[in-house]
Structures are given as structure tokens and as C-alpha cells.
Amino acid sequence: MGKQPSETDSQFHPPDYASQQVDAVAALTRNILSRYPEITPTHVLGHSDIAYARKSDPGPRFPWHELYLKGVKGSGLLVRGRHDAALSKNEFASSGLPSTAQLLAAFRR
Q: Gene3D superfamilies, alphabetically (predicted)?
């Protein structure tokens, strides 16, 4: 799923995400994850996690932790720009770390 807010495309300091926007993303993501259980928490990422050289969204203001509290488990768990290592470690532990070969294959896609 791709979600890119157009109002932040040209702004260096984008505004905070509106609560309605976060609620909509959470509901849509939960719906997709419920229909595709093979998508593990370590596969819930932002563009900046996989194409950091050309994409900056969802950006540093994206409320990953709020999404987590709304039932969306993901590896992009951020608390206002601070990576929450304990939460992330738990997510990876529950679904396993990808092998080096899997990581390289993913980046070559």
C-alpha cells in the first residue's frame, strides 16, 4: 500500500499528520493485514525505509507509535522521531529476521 500526502511534497518542514488521516491509514492498514496474514510486522514500512535515497515519506513526523497503538504492528515504530528499539526488537523476534539473501533480493526488486 502506498500512502503519500500531497501537501508535504514540496515542504521542508511538513505539518503534523491530522488525526483523521492517521485513523484512516490505521483502518486501511488493519484491513489489509487482516486479509493478508502473510504480511508480517517487519513488512510494514515507509518509502523512506526502502528507497531512502529518493523518497522521504512518510517523513519524520509520521506517528508510527500512534499507528502501533491503534493496532498496526510495524517495523517503522517511531516515537516522535526516536526509534523505539525495544518494540522493534519484539516485532522482529516474533516474525524472525530476514536472511542476508532475502534482504539483498528485496533491495534488487
A: Peptidoglycan recognition protein-like (3.40.80.10)
Grid coordinates belonging to 87: 518494540
Decide: 13 and 61 in contact? Cβ < 8 Å.
no
Nearest to 66 by CA among 103, 2, 21, 5: 21
**First-to-last C-alpha distance (Å) of the chain:** 16
The answer to whether 77 and 49 have CB atoms below 8 angstroms apart is: no
Reported pTM: 0.57
> How far is C-alpha 34 from the chain's CA centre?
16
Q: Who contacts 15 (Cβ-Cβ below 8 Å, separation ≥6)? A: 7, 8, 61
Give me 31's grid cell. 484491513
Q: Using an 8 Å Cβ cutoff, are 87 and 68 in contact? A: yes
Give the chain's residues under pLDDT 70. Answer: 1-14, 49, 51-53, 74-98, 109
Specify the amino acid at residue 41: P
